[in-house]
Amino acid sequence: MANDHYVARTFLQHFGDAEGRLHSYSKKKGGEYFSPWPNDVCREWDGDLNPAIEGMPEMLGEYRRLFEPKWNPVVEELNKRNADRSIRLLVALCFANMVTCVPAWRRVAAEQWQNMKSAELRFKNIINQERGIKDEGLEKGIAALEEGKIKLVADPDSIKAKMTGNLMGFASLVYHSNFVFFENKTDIPFVTADNPVALQLSDVLGEPMTRFMPITPKLGLVLKLDAWDRRKGGFPKEPKEIERLLEEEPRGKVFGNNPSPADVRGLNRLVVQCAEDQVFTCRKDEGIKALVAKYGKYRIESTPREYRESATSLIHGFVIDVRPRSD
After folding, report:
1. DSSP string covering 186-202, please?
2. Is the pLDDT confidence value at 327 over 60?
3. CA-CA-CA-CA torsion for 88, 90, 318, 42, nearest 10 degrees?
4. Residues above pLDDT 70, as percent of the chain
5. Which of 160, 180, 259, 295 would be 263's cystine partner, CB 3.0–4.6 Å?
6. Whole-model pTM above 0.70?
7. How many Å apart are CA 105 and CA 156, to the nearest integer?
8. What is the pLDDT of residues 139-157, one digit of tens each?
């Protein structure tokens, strides 16, 4: 068995101190500190493999190898302010992995599946009652679900396979989005985490959320995934369309921004809130320790929403937000 990184070691290395060590604070342990090497964190046994992907269980590992070995040269080019097509493609591949196949987002996807299946069962029971159909087994099952006596559990390999299948489509969406690079010239370094892409919801209904991926303590990427026609929903899924999109010149533009100290603190707060557990800094920092302790219960959560559309249909959806955990 291999102990694979879900956040690449080449990515984490850029947040090490002069000796190469990370300074880590645990949300689950109230800000407890330790100083690991990048090789020792963000790993899972056989994480690059998945038996649920028939014919190619190594698909995720092959995808990650598209960008992980090239990440150090990517950062070098970005530090030179070079974000040409080839660099943007590698950044997009990395970004897509960080927002689909890390444990935090696989947990959210599993919760969404569980909520969706529960909703389907409840709605079937409602329709049965309205039509005078008696199904005692279904009624007892729903009652047990609502009372917490039983729980629907998603198969983790199936969830991971679904997320892996979405990687290239998501990467093509990122590739064509506007890139806003935040050059951090303050004395407050950006932090990163075991869930490296933080998010912030828009206050405007229908606007895409803003996502932030720290690249180094002095450089971060902010973007909105708004390159895809919203009327189509989601992101590109057809292989030929994805291939065509990745062969095109990026539609989005590249912008620069110099954040203020307040901006950097705000972005670090988002990273801490969205982290699943570990927050990494390039130096020991009591301020970050306090922030981790303050937002220890926060994480990305999915809240189900249901709307009765007609006598025979139900709209079931989700709202993604960052808030104290529900379990």
Report:
1. SSS---EESS--EEE--
2. yes
3. -140
4. 95
5. 259
6. yes
7. 12
8. 898 889 888 898 999 999 9
